Amino acid sequence: MPLSKLRDEIDAVDQQIIDLLAERLRLVGEVGEVKTKHGLPIYVPEREAAMLAKRREEAEKKGVPASLIEDILRRTMRESYASENETGFKTVNPDMKRIVIIGGNGLLGQRFVEMFKLSGYDVDVLGRSNWDQAEAICSKAGLVIVGSPIDVTTDVIKQLSFLPKDCILTDITSVKDEPLTEMLAVHDGPVVGLHPMFGPDISSFAKQVIVYCDGREPEKYQWLIDQMKIWGAHLYNVAAPTHDKSMTLIQALRHFTSFVYGVHLQEVDADLEQLLDLSSPIYRLELAMVGRLFAQEPALYADIIMSQKNNLAMIKRYHQHFSDAIELLENNDREAFIDRFKSVTNWMGDYSELFLNESRTMLQQVHDNRHYEEK
Q: By CB neighbour count within 10 A (0-12 exposed, 13-18 middle, 19+ buried), where does 256 fall?
């Protein structure tokens, strides 16, 4: 009976939490309308950091763990950013002519179609079904975005010699140097390379990174950079060759190792259900990332991994490090293993501690999501 009474009280408090969250989301909707009216970005890092710091301090004064209130607020803010999309965004460049998105029927292309329409622009989608009208459609364009698959991006770009001189030409593929070079060669007007560092399944552009590589006449496409900032994205400027070198590690090598691990699991006929039952949070997260890869389009990852000649060289180099490490095991050279471990730790410096803290938060969330059923 005492336990039932306490549970009833907890249920009542939970209901109050739900009511308060509903009220918070309602207020966020009003905030979104104000931001739209005044052209303010949905994500303001300084505001978020100051608010979280204040709430952490207030929570600690009441005996509530600061990390708990931060977890709740961060999750709530994610929903808030997504709900602000519904109110639309300020049109940074109201004089912009039509926007044409080549490949706008693809999953990522659809997200950009949606965001530009929410920002008040007229958008046309160009693809295989209406490519015979490409020149006519693009003749009215002030911005053309190439969102074609990686393996055909440069071929598509080469066909765009008919664009108006004042039209901005850009692409959103994950390789930047070759497409940017081709765009500069085929078009005499403004050119910029873009790489959204996210997939199409995001709920909001808030805090998402979009890389941009300058091409020609940056003053002509500055409005585009500003527009994406209003969506909440973080715009990161980098030279195209530097970007591609980083993507070799961030994308090609990482996806390739996940691919190989998935192949290995299949070859040894691993019991995935049992692996999940026995997994630590960190292994569950690793398995989730491998599974995420194989739940998506294989051609996309084949193109990412094979898109640059340097990718193969980096993968071979990684393979050699595997061989070197295996040799340590074969020789049972414990001291050499520890020395190499320490060497990497020293090279990482303060980043290793940063990664430890960040991973701790992610692992706690993975652990919280676990649900056990009696068998």
A: buried
Q: Over the stretch 40-70, which tens digit does the pLDDT of each residue have?
A: 887 888 888 999 999 999 999 999 999 889 8
- Contact assessment for residue 309 and residue 256, using Cβ atoms and an 8 Å cutoff: no
Q: CA 276 → CA 78, 292, 326, 362, 367, distances in Å? A: 28, 15, 27, 17, 12
List helix spans (H) across the chain.
2-38, 45-61, 66-84, 107-118, 134-138, 150-158, 177-186, 218-230, 240-247, 254-267, 272-278, 281-294, 298-306, 309-330, 334-348, 350-368
Are 244 and 193 a contacting pair, CB within 8 Å?
Answer: no
Question: Is residue 374 predicted with pLDDT exceeding 70?
Answer: no
First to last CA, the chain: 29
Q: So what's the pLDDT on residue 364?
A: 82
Q: Report the 10 Å Cβ neighbour count for 369.
A: 9
Pairing between β-strand 234-237 and β-strand 209-216 as defined by DSSP bridges: parallel
Q: Are the beta carbons of 189 and 165 closer than 8 angstroms? A: yes
Identify residue 360 by its one-letter amino acid code: R
The DSSP result for 233-269, as a single string, is PEEEE--HHHHHHHHIIIIIIHHHHHHHHHHHHHHTT
pLDDT tens string 75-107: 888 887 777 666 788 899 999 999 999 999 999
CB 112 within 8 A of CB 172: yes
CB burial class (10 A; 0-12, 13-18, 19+) of residue 136? exposed
User: What is the per-residue DSSP string for 156-214?
Assistant: HHHT-TTS-TT-EEEE--S--HHHHHHHHHH-SS-EEEEEESS-TT-S--TT-EEEEEE
pLDDT on residue 86: 67
When the pLDDT of each residue in the chain is averaged and rounded to a whole number, the result is 92
Q: Give Rg (Cα) of the chain.
A: 25
pLDDT of 249 higher than 90? yes
Structure tokens at 306: 């094979």
Q: What pTM was estimated for this model as a whole?
A: 0.85
Q: What are phi and psi of 308, to 5 degrees?
A: -130, 145
Distance CA 273, CA 276 (A): 5
The three-state secondary structure class of 113 is helix
